[in-house]
UniProtKB/TrEMBL annotation:
<dbReference type="InterPro" id="IPR043129">
    <property type="entry name" value="ATPase_NBD"/>
</dbReference>
<dbReference type="InterPro" id="IPR036388">
    <property type="entry name" value="WH-like_DNA-bd_sf"/>
</dbReference>
<keyword id="KW-0418">Kinase</keyword>
<dbReference type="InterPro" id="IPR036390">
    <property type="entry name" value="WH_DNA-bd_sf"/>
</dbReference>
<dbReference type="InterPro" id="IPR000600">
    <property type="entry name" value="ROK"/>
</dbReference>
<dbReference type="GO" id="GO:0016301">
    <property type="term" value="F:kinase activity"/>
</dbReference>
<comment type="similarity">
    <text>Belongs to the ROK (NagC/XylR) family.</text>
</comment>
<keyword id="KW-0808">Transferase</keyword>
<feature type="region of interest" description="Disordered">
    <location>
        <begin position="1"/>
        <end position="21"/>
    </location>
</feature>
<protein>
    <submittedName>
        <fullName>NBD/HSP70 family sugar kinase</fullName>
    </submittedName>
</protein>
<dbReference type="Pfam" id="PF00480">
    <property type="entry name" value="ROK"/>
</dbReference>
Amino acid sequence: MPRTAAPLLTSPIPRVADSDRRRTSASVVLRSVLEHGPVARSTIARLTGLSPASVTDYCARFAELGLIRESAALRRSRGVGRPHLPVDLDDSRFVVGSVHVAVPHTTVALLDLRGRVVARREMKHERTEPAVALARAADGLAALLAGAPGRRSLGVGFAAGGWVDRDSGTVVEHPLLGWREVPVREVLGAHTGLPVHVDGHARALVNAERLFGGARGSRSVLHLFAGNVVDAAFATHDEVHHGPRSQAGAIAHLPVPGGTENCDCGRVGCLQAELSERTLCRRAREAGIVDGVNPMHVVGAAAAGDPVAVRLLLERSRRVGRAVRLLLDVLNPERVVVTEIGIMHREDCLTALRQEVEAGRAATVSPISFPESVLAVAGGAVALDVLYRDPLGASPEVI
């Protein structure tokens, strides 16, 4: 990936209030194009409450940067006058790089401005040392970009489970990988020459849901991620709660009544130990269903009619449902999104999960909107969230 120097700032530094106002206005205009495009500028003004002149100015700047383009189809207004020429996202030029580091493998991908996966590659860990894994990820991204001529990367988003500090760009602790205080932003930035944005995968997927998924427009969203790592994220009014040093959402060691699994922390019955995909696969091996560690093989056995595989998936979904009910009681979100392999692939697992939730709130619970590309979307969403929050600050001319 080529390194491109940022231009020098030559204009006076604006007041903080003015800068914040412009950033917010730019964000709501680009979000309106994302959500409603092709859309007339006059409609954007009505939706956002901004003046038509301000909307026109922002749209002109976005068009110059290559983020939006005028649609070919004219739209006639309801009244008298010239027809409107609507604007829409230009999803043909730019991508963001995505890196998601999971326990068994790293996923690298390219996503367009609509959060769609353009290219993807999954790389099994040869070694899990941070320097090795991140260098391989950078090489993988470079290969994907080389295979996408005409596309330019706006930056890289990185996501992982465990304790990930967004502000410092650091994986503070990932016990399953053995990572501690890994300066991901610094390392990946040095390899790629691009801006790198870092966050935990549960929070990243909340942002993906509110930008591109079924949770768009929800006033509050809870996301529970149940993979090898189990964690959660909570967003209200378009803001994901991070807490001091991004420790919010650490639910791995919540006690599960009646739990029997030994946890690495030394206790028995912690939520992650009970729900981990490693636990699911171990139980499936003990039952003779699979001989490996890929949870999709359990899903495949269930699809082929193996009753024990079906039972294991249903039991896991019910346990996840109990965790959802607990978090619902504490946080009271408008919408709950769950990333869990059973409910993403089987309707009976979703039904079993919802049965563990209070009847009046079961319909608020749904699977992640990206079942075939969860990990790829997670990494990319970190970078896309930055773009849509500050489209001029994260614009192509800066990088």
